[in-house]
Amino acid sequence: MTEHNHQERAIGIIAAMQIEIDGIKARLTDSYTLNESGIDFECGYIGDRRVVCAKCGVGKVFAALCAQTMCMRFSLDCIINTGVAGGLADGLRVLDVVVARDVVQHDMDTSPLGDPVGLLSGINIVNIPCDKKISDTLCECVKAEGINCFSGTVATGDQFVSTEEKRQYIKSTFNAAACEMEGGAIGHVCYVNGIPFGIIRAISDGGDGDAVLDYPTFAKMAADNSVKAVLRFIEHF
Ligand code: ADE
Fold it and tell me: Which of 66, 76, 199, 207 could join 100 via S-S bond, C-beta 3.0 to 4.6 A?
């Protein structure tokens, strides 16, 4: 193993599940693993870029824990969250990709106290903007892979969305293009830490009544589409 230059900034990649990150980990050279906060951070190189990747687990708390630990333990250029999502925008199909322009937490709700739904008290915003240059580059990478790319709001919450009613609520309340369970938490942590971030999600299901069947059928293929674009991003960013 060649000695890592620990001053050299890394691109951080976070995914919730093994199938969403394996394709990145497989490409690491000179890699080693560091366990912190119960999470394995695998560090190495892809081409001449230093990369650190981690499987955070499902949901906002695991995602935030992983992102915060990554921010504190590594010198980072940015964090990219890759994976799958339920599609909400009209015209989106399974295996298409959504690159987030911004993220919201659809299960954050202090509206009984007079706040807008989704307001993140303390930072006092609903939509956390992603880094524009990262998002634009991710979109170009998706298109270069011959995959349809949508840009829009990604809505995050600690729920697998699988009813038409819930789907419509998230879509209409937040004008969201996709729903998932980690991106908003990772964006929140990056925002607070001043780390540029991007969220890229390939569609595994429609977040509707068919989602429980579509998700297991398409998750692996969708995850691979997102990984392809992220690998291209690492080479070009
Ligand atoms: N990830 C993939 N599909 C999802 C859904 N329907 N709800 C939440 N997260 C998801």
Answer: 199
Adjacent-strand bridge partners of 13: 53, 80
pLDDT in tens, 32-52: 999 999 999 999 999 999 999
> Domain count of the chain?
1
CA of 31 to the centre of ligand 1 (A): 31
Q: Smallest Cα–Cα separation from 78: which of 11, 6, 8?
A: 11
Clarify whether 205 is annotated catalytic.
yes
Asked about 182 being catalytic, the answer comes back as: no
Q: Which domain holds residue 211?
A: 3-236
Q: What is the rounded CA–CA span in Å between residue 85 and residue 203?
A: 5
Measured in Å, residue 68 CA sits from the centre of ligand 1 at 23
Its pTM stands at 0.97
